[in-house]
Amino acid sequence: MLNSDSFALTLSCPNQPGLVSVVSSCLYEASGNITEAQQHDDTITGRFFMRVVFTLQDRARHKALMFANMEKIAKQYQMNWHITDRTRKKRVLIMVSRFDHCLVDLLYRWRIGELIMDIAGIIANHPKELYAHIDMQEVPFYYLPITPETKTTQEEKLQSIIEETQADLVILARYMQVLSSNLSQKLIGHCINIHHSFLPGFKGAKPYHQAFERGVKLIGATAHFVTSDLDEGPIIEQDVTRVTHSDTPADFIRKGRDIERRVLAQAVRDYIQDRIILNGSKTVVFGD
Ligand SMILES: Nc1nc2c(c(=O)[nH]1)N[C@@H](CN(C=O)c1ccc(C(=O)N[C@@H](CCC(=O)O)C(=O)O)cc1)CN2
């Protein structure tokens, strides 16, 4: 449950003995009380990863000291670090094309309070009429049509919306247009896509048909950070389900919808709870 009075610290640095003590002492000296702590040693890269959720006895008095202490140890131990103040909900933009099952699922989980976030807008490359059956409540809707000729202009409008809405996260909830290298580089670590296959298998726009032709017995879905390399970004969450010889491509698509919904929701939950740390081309995900 999001403790709205807490902070979340995520960090990575070259590994060495005593780092947990260094971090916990740094917070304690600023009246910090740790409520959750997880760490990981990547023995291949020699890097250390840590997630700490903590409160301060007196925020107003001790917040500046806490940041100053963190600056000091971060310099000393070459840390990449980030602190989220969880009194502010993360702001997300949801992008969608024709298939709306992931959009509907995220809206439902948000409406019932499972995903504690602010939805700053829904962006689609199809007109709002296509989604008339969806209760978007008061969420702003942006229609951004795109063709190969208008892609640059469309992406400029998209970037303006991202800036104006101060979005922390862009969710590609079956948005079926490839973001340019320029835009995907600007969104590194802040844009999550749901790919409808168990990557690295079956990249591209039609993975279920590829899987059917291959005769697989398992299909899956993958939530990953978006990079300029299509379907190659750091993986956050994956899941699979069984299919059989009697399943048609339509059955693959039907069974796949449930996996896509579940996997994307989990990845969004991990993100808004500051559970993900990038580790090169991979991720460290501190689960709940
Ligand atoms: N820079 C990135 N952009 C996007 C990624 C990504 O990984 N990096 N993922 C896609 C989603 N996706 C698969 O999960 C995907 C979407 C679209 C295509 C594709 O070939 N699209 C065609 C147009 C298809 C159409 O109009 O229906 C194209 O863009 O030419 C492949 C994979 C989202 N963006």
TrEMBL record:
GO terms for molecular function: formyltetrahydrofolate deformylase activity. It comes from the Bacteria. It is an enzyme of class 3 (hydrolase). The keyword S-adenosyl-L-methionine does not apply. It catalyses: (6R)-10-formyltetrahydrofolate + H2O = (6S)-5,6,7,8-tetrahydrofolate + formate + H(+). Keywords: Hydrolase, One-carbon metabolism, Purine biosynthesis. PROSITE patterns: ACT. Residues 8-88 form the ACT domain. The active site is at 231. SUPFAM superfamilies: ACT-like (SSF55021), Formyltransferase (SSF53328). Pathway: Purine metabolism; IMP biosynthesis via de novo pathway; formate from 10-formyl-5,6,7,8-tetrahydrofolate: step 1/1. Its EC number is 3.5.1.10. One of its GO terms (biological process) is 'de novo' IMP biosynthetic process. Catalyzes the hydrolysis of 10-formyltetrahydrofolate (formyl-FH4) to formate and tetrahydrofolate (FH4). Belongs to the PurU family. HAMAP family: PurU. This is Formyltetrahydrofolate deformylase. It comes from Entomobacter blattae. The gene is purU.
